[in-house]
Amino acid sequence: MANISELEKLRQHFNSGITRPYNFRKDQLKKLKASILKYEQELYDALYTDLKKSPEESWVTETGMVIAELNAAIKNLRSWMRPERAGTNLLNMPSRSRVIKEPLGVVLIIGPWNYPFQLLINPFIGAIAAGNCVVLKPSEFALATDAVMKKIVQDVFPPEYVLYVQGDGAVVVPEMMNNFSFDYVFYTGSTTVGKIIYKMAAERLVPVTLELGGKSPCIVESDANIKVAARRIAMTKFSNAGQMCVAPDYVLVHESVKDNFMATMKETVQKFFTDKPEENYNYCKMINERQFNRVAGYLSNGKIVYGGRTDKEKLFIEPTILSDIPPDAPVMNEEIFGPVLPVIPFNTMEEAKAVIDRHPNPLSFYVYTSSNKKEKEWLETVPAGGCCVNNSSWHLTNHHLPFGGRGFSGTGNYHGRYSFETFSHKKAVMKTPTWFDPNIKYPPFKGKLKLFKWVIR
Ligand code: NAD
Hints:
Bound molecules: nicotinamide-adenine-dinucleotide
Strand order of the largest sheet: 10-13-14-9-8-15-16
Shape: globular
Largest sheet: 7 strands, mixed
């Protein structure tokens, strides 16, 4: 638990100006990279302990993503920090205008357990690149990864610059947020806790990014390449045993290709994870018993077309495909966040849209189609945080794209340059020369209206 004097030390450290220069920021990014690489093997072991994640999956979705983000930050930091030139309107001529990217101050970053490393460290990269002091609060449910992250951070950063705070979020986060004014809070986790964070931040007018969850729909159109669609959906739905915020939550498949899609999905899932996924190298486990019980409860919400086996002791739930689901079933009303895939047939776009509209503004939206017209129609019809066409989830691994939700799936975005901007204040600066100071700008104003109308038009 952090006490207030520790948080005040971060404020003093920030106010000293030490974190502002380009060279300081770049050195910290390099130190972080070296520390991650030093503990790479320990990270793989920890991610295996917490989620039974293989090193390959861990590299693609955790360590590799973080290293790519770090490389982009180290390479582009100077250009990100450069003030942006801005135009000046006639009213203010001959002034000159620019936008300076100013660090925010002391920021709090709160992470979840499903990608415990990447989802804490990626925003952290943006925060230090932007010149802030940082409090890191990892999830208390991925304990092995938490322990390694603590070493990675504490090996290279003093606590007055980066403070690593462990513990029960419901206790330690309110204690910090209600007694200390952070300059920014970046939160990744459930919508329920997101609302609590938003309220606490509002009390002190602290700006926030909320990276939340929700039900991300996936459309398979009548003209989709079914083989490719099945491979990409199976891969992203069952990766990390479905515990992925951008996993396709459910599939809406056009009635005309439903049978083909179902058969291809079954074949694909079997090929990827075998008949014994619990022993398969590529298949993860549920994080804990609570999540296991919650997701296992969905198995009775429809007809099991594939999978359905569980093993509580191993926290194992087989990749499962469900059909014939009543619209009011919990599996269609809550974020699944596990390896259960409801498949619902549709005939018209309106019919599919009615299902999606029950949970508006999803974090992600996926459409599989070979028609540009349908692609355009779908993209214009479904407001969402981000989208993939003929793919699922991978958009979040491209650091050139902003990643974030809208409405119930969150507010704000990050990755690459967008992270740097999230953790910077855009300060408007106008510089006015003194050699030109016409009387027209000063009282008395009587009789100047016509001229003012000409200047401001
Ligand atoms: P969670 O909301 O339970 O926990 C996230 C963090 O909040 C943890 O660090 C926890 O300690 C802290 N916390 C818990 N209760 C708190 C409270 N009362 N006050 C303050 N802090 C508290 O979320 P989770 O179960 O770890 O993650 C699962 C959810 O996160 C899913 O809904 C998923 O979709 C979402 N998620 C979103 C993204 C994204 O990028 N948008 C990524 C991963 C997960």
